[in-house]
Amino acid sequence: MKTLSLLFALGAAHMASAAFISTGDLGPRIGFGADGGIVSAELDINDLLVGGTSSVTFKTGEWNNPNASDPANYIFVEAFINGTSVGTFDSGRAYFSSGPTFTAYGSSSLLVQGKNLFELKAVNPQSGLDYALGQVDVRYTAVPEPATMAALGLGLVAALRRRRA
Hints:
Blueprint: H1 2-15, E1 18-22, E2 29-31, E3 38-45, E4 53-62, E5 76-81, E6 84-90, E7 101-106, E8 114-122, E9 131-141, H2 146-164
Antiparallel strand pairs: 1-9, 2-9, 3-8, 4-7, 4-9, 5-6, 5-8
Helix pairs in contact: 1-2
């Protein structure tokens, strides 16, 4: 009976597992409009919780854009995770003076064990319209494995039996 209760506790602890991994401050890295506006970062994920849910957040901002408030000068950026496009966004405010913009995308099926490549590419690259990538963060949560759910179920049955006795 105590063994089953212990399995229940272990299963419940495993269900709550989540992780956060980050590139940390990238310096920032600049996507120069004159060069096509491409910037990238790699992130090594060794403990990927397979079958879970995840999101990737890009910290970006306008870099060398004196007229950033003019919609004609907005820099639109397409985000890629391991070569797959996940969406397009406006790189937003000036990186330092106004503060960076944070844009998040769901990425559950795109992340892999090991090296992951995160790329940003300007949709409208123009000379003098540059943007910065400051950081990439990944948050993910595990979905319990079938064996964990079985242990959880057995522990629950044991707890209910014990309660009735």
